[in-house]
Amino acid sequence: MDPKFTYSALRSTDVPYKEYESDKYDLKFVQIITRHGRRTPESKRYPLTMWICNSLDQLITNKDEERPECNMGQLTVLGIQDQINVGKAYKKLFIDHLHFLDKDYNSKQIFIRSTNRERTISSARSLMHGLYGGSFSDNQEKSPHHSSFYIMNEADENMYPRSSPRYNFLKSLLKKHRDVIEENKKSKLEDFTKKIQKIFEDSKFDTAFYVPTWRSYAGLVNSFDCFRNNGLPLPKGFTPEIIERMYAESAKEFKSMRFFPEMSQLGIGRFVNDLNKQMYLKGVNDSSVKDLKLALYSGHDTTLAALLVAYDMYEDNRHPVTSSALEYLLFQDKNYEAPSRFGRSNEKELINHQYVKVIYNHKPVHIGECKDKEVDGMCPLSEFIKISQSIIPKDYEQQSKISDEQKKMYANLVK
């Protein structure tokens, strides 16, 4: 491993405090959706002895001997450190600077959910370790900071796009969409792809990283990052310009989902429903979330990309890097006094005094449909809820189906 990669961050964790504090608004609630840290490949093609991992019940250890062999798709020690660093940045922000969270861990203030993958569970543990210390393991005897993460059954998981007949068919049509084809011709994507294939062929005996073909640039970038971001040798020829273009092509693939809004509904809409319900309950001061201040969701690049596309706020041209974080911040007017007794009759009034700011990797981004309705750079909560509801499928099972007639209709639309 290249020593210069030892615990070096892949993105800045410098927090712009001004985005989180205001003379006019109080921070009320925060939802954070993260991508896991650096990991090993999900492929049997490469010897996993190339990467350095800890055992699954540990975070960081300095012991270099007798380390266990990595598993496929496992968080590396660098990936663990990524998330610890993100957690430390949030500690400085939410505990030390804003005093938004208690100094000592309070499980009533924090909700944690992860997909059922080692890398996302370990990422959540590592981030919480950076925030509060402790191991956050599932064994209460080992950790004074024990916290049970909420993990859904695989059949019900909705934090990343799932296969459904309609979703799969629409995804297969994206490359055939006339606008996609025109853009790829204009950017000479075919020539760029051949250039990368030649790099791999010219170096296939020099490094372990060899990808003869790939179905998507998103998949290629994920495999590429497992090597580059862990300081492992790459084929000669991967210049900064080529790497940047690969990231841009991956982002274009994600963004192409906008041609079929149904893909957002089917792909990430049910997770949007979970986020929206929680945000709404907090907005109306429901007793079930009285003490809740932070909700952490540990997910994947596909989670973040799908949310950025669904809300039309994918403003950069890069594949979401490992340890990325997307934040929904709920603010309330400082001068507004909420009713001491609250009922359905004044829900609307209460919501009208609250706003949502979105931060992606510590930079504000803006929801496309809400840009002309923003107040001080924030989307009114009422508008945010309405936009969210447009992303949520009305009947997921029914909308997932697709007939031969509908397939023909969609095929004609893309020509």
UniProtKB/TrEMBL annotation:
GO terms for molecular function: phosphatase activity. The keyword Hydrolase applies. Pfam families: His_Phos_2. It comes from the Eukaryota. InterPro entries: Acid_Pase_AS (IPR033379), His_Pase_clade-2 (IPR000560), His_PPase_superfam (IPR029033), Histidine_acid_phosphatase (IPR050645). Keywords: Hydrolase. Belongs to the histidine acid phosphatase family. PANTHER family: 2-PHOSPHOXYLOSE PHOSPHATASE 1 (PTHR11567:SF110), ACID PHOSPHATASE-RELATED (PTHR11567). This is Acid phosphatase. The lineage of its organism: Eukaryota, Amoebozoa, Evosea, Eumycetozoa, Dictyostelia.
